[in-house]
Design a protein that fits this description.
The protein is α/β, with parallel strands linked by helices. It has 11 helices and 12 strands. Strand 6 and strand 7 form a beta hairpin. The chain is globular.
Length: 326
């Protein structure tokens, strides 16, 4: 059911962008046959999923050139073009591919220019709302790449510039060149490492934070099981991820049952509880929530509004302390 009340909007860092608490993550809709694929994906289903997200009130989409080697951006463009809604669209540079579909990394000024122009073309826009360096790799090139993003921002091809997967030392290096609007780190109850230094630094320096994988790539949605993990397509990158394999998998699925119990009291899915856990942190501006079908999006849309109370948050924390990772 489409929500009837508008979600709250959160200002992103130093920008004039105001985001709904969750955005649509377009990694999985890149489809199969590339190194970080989630397996095959129907493009029409992807477009319907995006339409559903926008109808639910989500006002931003996060993609990257590397997702499906350009394919995700093309699908996002088709979906936005055929929707009455006009969401903010964010994308990223720094991961590239050659004619053999082999991925390589580059953040030189020339590479950033090429990637930006290609993304503008695939997305069918003249300006990208938020353009991000996907990974600080090669590390020696981050200053050159960031300076180029700042130049392209002044030229009007980018509204705001951000980074993803940077540590504090790397953030300080690029801040000396131009202000950082946002950071995109992995953050979830299974991957809380950024709580130590990175989130406090962003909070203290006015850097917006858009966390990715709040449900750990589907693991905390409530729809995952040991059998489903075993049946994943061979090109699904999650087959090799430590959280999807023993000894952690059984522990993580027990955590999902706690999330299910909390969520059932409010009529929401475990994944909604997992997203709400990340939004509980004051440094988090908004969270990326992926969806491969309208049904998945409908199930997760309550994350626009649902928040944990202190007791529920404490109960999750207690489980994590009492069941440390193996």
């Amino acid at each position: 059911m489409t929500t009837t009340t508008s979600p709250s909007l959160h200002k992103l860092g130093n920008s004039d962008l105001h985001l709904t608490p969750i955005g649509f993550g377009a990694w999985a809709i890149g489809g199969g046959n590339w190194d970080f694929a989630w397996g095959p994906q129907n493009d029409d289903e992807s477009i319907r999923a995006i339409h559903q997200a926008l109808d639910e009130g989500i006002n931003w989409i996060d993609t990257a050139a590397i997702y499906g080697l350009g394919h995700s951006e093309e699908i996002v463009a088709k979906a936005v073009k055929t929707s009455s809604h006009k969401p903010l669209v964010f994308t990223k540079c720094a991961m590239r591919w050659d004619e053999n579909r082999t991925i390589y990394r580059s953040i030189t000024a020339a590479s950033v220019q090429e990637e930006l122009d290609a993304s503008l073309r695939r997305l069918g826009v003249e300006t990208i709302d938020l353009y991000q360096i996907h990974w600080p790799n090669p590390d020696a090139e981050i200053e050159e790449g960031w300076a180029e993003l700042a130049r392209q921002q002044k030229a009007g091809k980018i509204r705001w510039i951000g980074i993803s997967n940077f540590n504090v030392e790397q953030m300080k290096r690029v801040q000396a060149i131009a202000p950082i609007t946002s950071l995109q780190p992995p953050y979830s109850m299974l991957r809380p490492a950024v709580e130590q230094e990175i989130l406090p630094y962003c909070l203290a320096n006015g850097i917006g934070v858009i966390n990715y994988s709040p449900m750990v790539s589907g693991l905390l949605t409530g729809r995952m099981s040991a059998e489903r993990v075993a049946a994943m397509p061979s090109d699904d990158w999650r087959r090799k991820a430590v959280e999807f394999n023993e000894p952690r998998l059984s522990r993580n699925l027990r955590l999902v049952e706690l999330l299910r119990k909390i969520g059932s009291a409010h009529g929401v899915e475990p994944g909604v509880v997992a997203v709400a856990w990340t939004l509980h942190h004051p440094a988090i501006t908004a969270a990326i929530v992926g969806g491969r079908s309208p049904e998945q999006v409908k199930g997760l849309a309550p994350a626009l509004h649902f928040r944990l109370n202190d007791e529920e948050f404490s109960n999750i924390g207690k489980f994590l302390v009492e069941n440390p990772v193996a």
